[in-house]
């Protein structure tokens, strides 16, 4: 290993050091995920940083979680005695600094210097600031060899990787894990004239009618945002609502609706939508989104598992979308912290909740009406197995298989049973940023007449 390119000096922790606030916020965000008490995005909600620092903090925290497996393996190798106990934010400081050194276009010297300052500023971590300095210098000096020794699947937790290998085969599991290492494109659903908006925004029109952009800047600054011409929605997340077909003039219930991607789709398609969610805070975001888009829905705060549904359900609906709460393992491309904050136990718990929700659908869908059930999970218990069991025990619903035309002909997204099953490895493209889609499951069922 060559000599580290750093002079020996002792940085101090000052409040106005350029770039320090962004690093401190990234450390807080990553520590929140590692402590199992917070989603990564929550750390940025009320952060009072300048836009540039906020964007940098987000980028550092995002890549730290996206490559957490690689960085963790590497730190294990370099810390002969393991991560020191009772060292406060030391682990998050090391991870975020290593992420900058290995994966971001940030001078290594700045990443090390600011990490050491953050360690020194914390009562529990300060005793380890020398260790932090030494480890990070080693990473900087040997990055190529260190990275070459770590397999690509290291960035997917082993329990999840094993599940995916069992469910989809090892080649597909490897392709999914590889897709999740890449910061994905921005996908938009547009109200009208998708081709025109793709051209205007310098993006690409996908066969599913979403518009895909290689953009990682401020979304609000893009043309058409303020005018409410489009909303952000992964290409896969836009598919379940399309399975309802032409909904113009129909009464549609969107259950578990917030923040409203699917509500906006059905409202824009001319349906009279009732959007139900139990979270008032998330519904607030749904209402703001609809307002910007100049779309309307009846917005109802309610628990769909509560005994009394009469407050919002005067009569059954022509169609219902149930976008059930789930393990969200299909969204790891966009929310890499999900990979490290879930466990196998979570899957059983949400599968049980989904089963109970499905059990209530018969009273909500008119005879002859459609039910679309979906989850952004890659786990069969929340998708294929859930619906197979539901249909097995149901005298009310029959499967209406998904057809290639329903989903713009994307290859490999329909199972032999007729379910929609998208994977992060679908929609391949020579440019990895423009490839892929979230993992979604959807089933379309018709209530028997
Ligand atoms: C996957 S998210 C929905 C995403 C949304 N459909 C969209 O397209 O933007 C799941 C939602 O289910 C809601 N939820 C969870 N349990 C619920 C319940 N028992 N009743 C109503 N909503 C619930 C959560 O508050 C959360 O907003």
Automatic annotation (TrEMBL):
SAM-dependent MTase RsmB/NOP-type domain sequence ranges = 150-448
Q: PROSITE patterns recorded for this chain?
A: SAM_MT_RSMB_NOP
Q: Which top-level enzyme class is recorded in the Swiss-Prot or TrEMBL entry?
A: transferase
Q: Which GO terms describe its biological process?
A: methylation
Has the keyword Nucleus been applied to this entry? Answer: no
Write out the GO MF terms.
methyltransferase activity
The UniProt keyword set, sorted, is: Coiled coil, Methyltransferase, RNA-binding, S-adenosyl-L-methionine, Transferase
Question: Sorted alphabetically, which Gene3D superfamilies does this protein's record hold?
Answer: NusB-like (1.10.940.10), Vaccinia Virus protein VP39 (3.40.50.150)
Q: Which Pfam families match?
A: Methyltr_RsmB-F, NusB
This enzyme's EC code(s)? 2.1.1.-
Q: Does the keyword Protein biosynthesis apply?
A: no
Entries under InterPro entries matching the protein: MeTrfase_RsmB-F_NOP2_cat, MeTrfase_RsmB-F_NOP2_dom, NusB-like_sf, NusB_RsmB_TIM44, RCMT, SAM-dependent_MTases_sf
Q: Which residues form the active site?
A: 376 (nucleophile)
Q: Which residues form a coiled coil?
A: 276-303
Chain positions recorded as S-adenosyl-L-methionine binding sites = 256-262, 277, 303, 323
Q: Which domain of life is it from?
A: Bacteria
PANTHER family, per database record:
NOL1_NOP2_SUN FAMILY PROTEIN _ ANTITERMINATION NUSB DOMAIN-CONTAINING PROTEIN (PTHR22807:SF61), NOP2 YEAST -RELATED NOL1/NOP2/FMU SUN DOMAIN-CONTAINING (PTHR22807)
The Swiss-Prot or TrEMBL record describes its family as follows:
Belongs to the class I-like SAM-binding methyltransferase superfamily. RsmB/NOP family.
The protein in question is named: RsmB/NOP family class I SAM-dependent RNA methyltransferase
Q: Species name for this entry?
A: Labrys neptuniae
């Amino acid at each position: 290993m060559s000599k580290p390119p750093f002079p020996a000096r002792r940085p101090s922790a000052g409040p106005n050091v350029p770039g320090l606030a962004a690093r401190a916020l990234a450390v807080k965000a990553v520590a929140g995920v590692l402590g199992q008490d917070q989603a990564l995005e929550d750390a940025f909600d009320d952060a009072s940083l300048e836009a540039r620092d906020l964007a940098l903090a987000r980028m550092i925290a995002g890549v730290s979680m996206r490559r957490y497996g690689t960085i963790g393996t590497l730190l294990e190798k370099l810390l002969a005695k393991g991560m020191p106990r009772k060292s406060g934010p030391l682990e998050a400081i090391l991870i975020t600094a290593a992420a900058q050194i290995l994966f971001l276009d940030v001078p290594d010297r700045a990443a090390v210097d600011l990490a050491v300052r953050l360690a020194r500023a914390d009562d529990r971590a300060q005793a380890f600031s020398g260790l932090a300095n030494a480890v990070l210098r080693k990473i900087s000096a040997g990055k190529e060899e260190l990275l070459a020794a770590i397999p690509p699947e290291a960035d997917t937790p082993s329990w999840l990787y094993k599940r995916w290998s069992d469910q989809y085969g090892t080649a597909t599991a490897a392709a999914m894990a590889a897709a999740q290492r890449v910061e994905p494109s921005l996908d938009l659903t547009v109200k009208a004239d998708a081709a025109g908006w793709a051209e205007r925004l310098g993006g690409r029109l996908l066969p599913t009618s979403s518009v895909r952009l290689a953009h990682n800047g401020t979304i609000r600054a893009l043309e058409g945002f303020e005018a409410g011409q489009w909303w952000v929605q992964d290409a896969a997340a836009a598919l379940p609502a399309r399975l309802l077909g032409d909904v113009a003039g129909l009464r549609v219930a969107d259950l578990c609706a917030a923040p409203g991607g699917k509500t906006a789709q059905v409202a824009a398609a001319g349906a009279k939508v009732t959007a139900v969610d139990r979270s008032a805070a998330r519904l607030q975001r749904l209402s703001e989104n609809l307002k910007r888009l100049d779309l309307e829905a009846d917005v109802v705060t309610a628990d769909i598992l509560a005994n009394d549904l009469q407050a919002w359900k005067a009569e059954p609906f022509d169609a219902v979308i149930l976008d059930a709460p789930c393990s969200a393992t299909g969204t790891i491309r966009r929310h890499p912290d999900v990979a490290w904050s879930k466990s196998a136990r979570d899957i059983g718990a949400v599968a049980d909740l989904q089963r109970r929700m499905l059990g209530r659908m018969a009273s909500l869908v008119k005879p002859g009406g459609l039910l679309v059930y979906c989850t952004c999970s890659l786990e069969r218990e929340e998708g294929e197995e859930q619906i197979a069991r539901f249909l097995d025990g149901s005298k009310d619903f029959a499967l209406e298989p998904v057809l290639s035309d329903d989903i713009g002909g994307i290859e490999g997204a329909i199972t032999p049973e007729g379910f929609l099953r998208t994977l992060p490895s679908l929609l391949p493209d020579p440019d990895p940023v423009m490839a892929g889609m979230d993992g979604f499951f959807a089933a379309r069922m018709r209530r028997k007449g």
